[in-house]
Specification:
heterodimer, A: 525 residues, mainly alpha, B: 381 residues, alpha+beta, Helix Hairpins, Immunoglobulin-like, Cytochrome Bc1 Complex, Chain D, domain 2, five-stranded mixed sheet, 44% helix
Chain lengths: 525, 381
Amino acid sequence: MTELALPHPHDHTHPSGITRWLFTTNHKDIGTLYLLFSVSMLFIGGSFAMVVRAELFQPGLQFVSPHFFNQMATMHALVMIFGAVMPAFVGLANWMIPLMIGAPDMALPRLNNWSFWLLPFAFTLLLATLFMPGGAPSGGWTMYPPLVLQMGMAFPFLIFAVHLMGLSSVMGAINVITTVFNMRAPGMTYGKLPLFVWTWVITAFLLIAAMPVLAGAVTMLLTDKFFGTSFFNAAGGGDPVMFQHVFWFFGHPEVYIMILPAFGIVSQIVPTFARKPLFGYTSMIYAVASIAFLSFIVWAHHMFTVGMPLAGELFFMYSTVLIAVPTGVKVFNWVATMWRGSMTFETPMLWALCFIILFSIGGFSGLMLGLAPVDFQYQDTYFVVAHFHYVLVTGAVFAIIAGVYFWLPKWTGRMYDERLGKLHFWLSTISVNVLFFPQHFLGLAGMPRRIPDYAVQFSGWNMVSSLGAFAFGASQLIFLYIVVRAISGHGAKASAQVWEGAQGLEWTLSSPPPYHSFNEPPKVP
Amino acid sequence: MESTFPEQIRKLALALACMLATREVWADYKLNLTEGVTSISREAYRLHMLALWICVVIAIVVFGAMAWSIYHHRKSRGAVAASFHDNTKVEIAWTIVPFLILVVLAIPATNALIAMNDTSNADLTIKITGLQWRWRYDYLKEDISFVSNLDDKSAAAAKQGSGIDPRTVEHYLLNVDNPVVVPVGKKVRFLLNASDVIHSWWVPDLGFKKDAIPGFVNEIWARVDTPGTYRGQCTELCGVGHGFMPIVLIAMNEPEYLVWLAQQHAASAKARAGGDRTWTREELLAKGDEVYAKNCAACHQPNGEGIPGAFKALKGSPVVKGPLAEHIDRVMNGKPGTAMPPFAAQLSDAEIAAVITHERNAWGNNTGDLVQPAQIKAARK
């Protein structure tokens, strides 16, 4: 037998400097890169939101022109969705999935490197438009034609940025599926996979199915603009509403791409701090799978007002409200997990509990929005803005923050300051409700979304909402401080187990785990 | 006599209480959906309240259980964790019960939706066209059509750095020059369409919004049962003027409505007459300035310099300073593929003539050209 000159897995080559990060194929490094990228986008996207809320603080135009306001609203959405929330989940997946399933790394490490390094280029393209003549995209993140076709120089940059983000997401998804299907440690059966892994596998399938649809839709926009096609141009025999159908066929699964991994995170945290196994493990997986399936047949509820046939409106109304059933099952399961547990309330648990309550509030308004005859009143008002911020900020983002507090000691080997963590939690929770709850009232009172200025009757709640926004934005600086402290090696040393009730392979490794972990497959209990 | 300190506090509290009790203060803090003035809006309101209360009850039950558990099953109270992790009966129950609640909601929702879609047997049809950034109303069979713009007072106050406090403007951003008028008690069918980008026509008191889409005609109906003025806004992002294209709908009793119709007929006859005479330079420039401010300044800016990269400058523009025919064509027919819309259908001959005259003489363009309504009339053929 000939000896193969394979690099030995135990020679801990540990490149340093910039090349470590540029050429890394290590899932932990790439996870860290994703998370750092995400947090920087969180602050950039957040500063756009601050501009929006500053302008809406009072009626009248005080700070920015309507043109710039529209740019801020559009860029806020694009940066937060594609730059902050999605990369954060991919970062968590990179860090945690191999540790949870007992794999030495992701299945496709070079692809992993490429998926990450596409993102800085994508966002350079996107953010550079802010400095171009005519400014950044201003037609809303939904990119509806014909309005989007009126955009100036930013247009092709937006389209190519979206292509790159999509490419990155699809490759990340392929990597997750390949890893989970092939690299589980012996004995780590599908029936034992942690919920975070399960939700991510299902999310990855959604990504693979949905992102190419978006790529197709924006490519058709591109050819309509530059190559004389008329996919969405009524005057040329096309159909502007078709774009909305195609977009939301991507867009609704996209919504769940941003929430299913959040369900996974919460399903890891609640049992840990209740010191009791997750209630209804199997029904949780079925619920997530049903939500994923339903996400492909509800898209037109985003566009009830475009004038669909009655039968279409009824179908999409029924399928939409049906999502309440599996979502309800998940919430009931979490409550049942807490029931007769032995609970403690460290920072990750506080965020997770708050997620359950506030995400449910977003779910309730979602149910109301699903009822088509009332949606004709709610559509495109601040009621919708309140709804999707409850599910995306107090839903997705709160779960991500919960996950960061939960796993930060594992990643860095340092405990964060519990007092500061709780301060961050309480300030955020109070201010986020001051920020978004009054927006329900504004919408019901008749304030449309995406307007730079408003009638005087809306001024009271707008001022309250803006004050909440500034406080919420400022509170996140505490988060930044906490994370930076842990990374820079301050704080008490964390044990391998970290949390008393923690269960699973990731907690058998030291904190921080070795650069190369599980080179020998672990024993699955 | 000087009042003592506690007395001052009492007075202050009294004043505060009085202030809070007045409707004006609370008008800023409206909480709920309007019941509106049509059968559709009332049905929407009932459904909204039903769904809201169902959600509130579910929230109380679920969050109540959570709160109970958080209080009683905490480690600090000595709680010892149980080890159960499923219960088929309970899980089936909490799958079926929510489903039944959904059925309770879906039945009235279905009925409401069917009623909304029935646009048959209308007494009157109004075609609504969304334009960047105004609404045009055509009363079919009546030969009345007019464009409805944001009113001048709101427009002036909404300028960045105008120095005008919006609170001093009555119905700020919710007022128009030409409101749409409907008769009370009649079934009015609205046909919605757009000429440039997608808009959405929403008057909350009517109980619906409907998109106005280029190349499509959408239908919806309303039977307003209470005379009054009802205000709304465009609700689909349509560019820089999206926040500045309100809707005002006035519902009148039949006799008043007939008087209004007669006035409209007279007004449109008068507008046509203006196009037949020759205007002086001063008249054209004055009218042109007004038309420009209302229709062009949002993009091309009051100083004619546009927004580089987004909206072309008119100051020194080759089209504005070049051959007249091309300028007239650009204003009347727009430029496809850009934000420049065709104005032929939105503005009268006199208005187009005036605005072109204005553009050719303002901001140092000084071509000295005068354009008469007759030239526009000729260009329409």
